[in-house]
């Protein structure tokens, strides 16, 4: 089965992890500092703080931004559940704003003035245009789990040019991996400090009381990344440009191979990046008729093509039932959620495998 996503690990990555295993530090240590410096370098943000995973990074971002009970945090319904759960972790209320079907991203002009924060998801790796916010909420958080390596006219995603905090995930299907892992970037010294406390039990050193002394100043968590993972992350990050370039080349090959089917109205191709922007292509999600999707999915699998669905809209999951958001609440996201199908896309996907996927689609659509 050709999977929809897969990590690309080479001998350099393996050697980087083995070197840590032979050293003195296994959990958070110097390799985490090095990885964070590399994220700063890659994104242009002033600070980067590594976390155990992207969900923890989002939780931390909401917490240090001061979001909590009484605050309304809005996000896109067409995302992974973590984009909304981060608000629930801090006791804030979750709201959704429908997507713009042209970009598949949250329709920012419709973010209500009552929102205290927006979690802007760069769906599939196409950056949300943050200049389209009609009202700037108190807090703007980017969920860039799909979008490391993407560019906007303001520079790399993660530089926080138009946001307060930007969160990444390094899960194996994402563009670079540390197995589990994540990070938050910010340009605020205070928030970077708060992020470091948040991932390590709210601990601060008290040198005046002795070399050993520390104080726990607030309730926090153990969300530390290990040095083994951080070494893998630095090694992977060095290949970010190559990975994103390969993903863009594969996406272009899909567009060419599927142009005829798209022209005949059998499927809809995903939005491309406008001039001056770079898509990270975490996903290549075509849309097929909702009544046909299950058959197409099953028949693709039968032909060895592991397509996947991203996503069942968040508000349709049982855990959000109490919000009372029934069918028709977010029509564009619901339409997309019923028709999207992510095709295999990862740097190690071979050209002949891509041809297999295209041929299979030509047959089953
Ligand atoms: C993967 C993902 C996350 C969460 O990342 P983890 O590292 O798996 O915790 C959050 N948001 C989006 C949009 C994602 O795709």
Q: What this model shows, in words?
A:
The strands form five sheets. A seven-stranded mixed β-sheet has the order 1-11-10-7-6-2-3, with helices on both faces. The protein has 365 residues and is an alpha/beta fold. It contains ten helices and 15 strands. The protein is globular and about 75 Å long. 34% of the residues lie in helices and 15% in strands. The two termini are 19 Å apart. The structure holds pyridoxal-5'-phosphate (PLP). The site of pyridoxal-5'-phosphate (PLP) has 14 residues, from α3 and α4.
Question: TL;DR?
Answer:
The protein has helices at 11-21, 30-43, 54-64, 82-89, 189-198, 227-237, 240-263, 290-302, 331-339, 351-364, and strands at 47-51, 72-75, 93-96, 99-100, 105-106, 117-121, 139-143, 151-152, 155-156, 165-169, 182-186, 203-205, 214-216, 284-287, 340-343. The chain is an alpha/beta fold and 365 residues long.
Furnish the topology, listing elements before pairings.
Elements: H1 11-21, H2 30-43, E1 47-51, H3 54-64, E2 72-75, H4 82-89, E3 93-96, E4 99-100, E5 105-106, E6 117-121, E7 139-143, E8 151-152, E9 155-156, E10 165-169, E11 182-186, H5 189-198, E12 203-205, E13 214-216, H6 227-237, H7 240-263, E14 284-287, H8 290-302, H9 331-339, E15 340-343, H10 351-364
Parallel strand pairs: 2-3, 2-6, 6-7, 7-10
Antiparallel strand pairs: 1-11, 4-5, 8-9, 10-11, 12-13, 14-15
Helix pairs in contact: 1-6, 2-6, 3-4, 3-5, 7-10, 8-10
Bound molecules: pyridoxal-5'-phosphate (PLP).
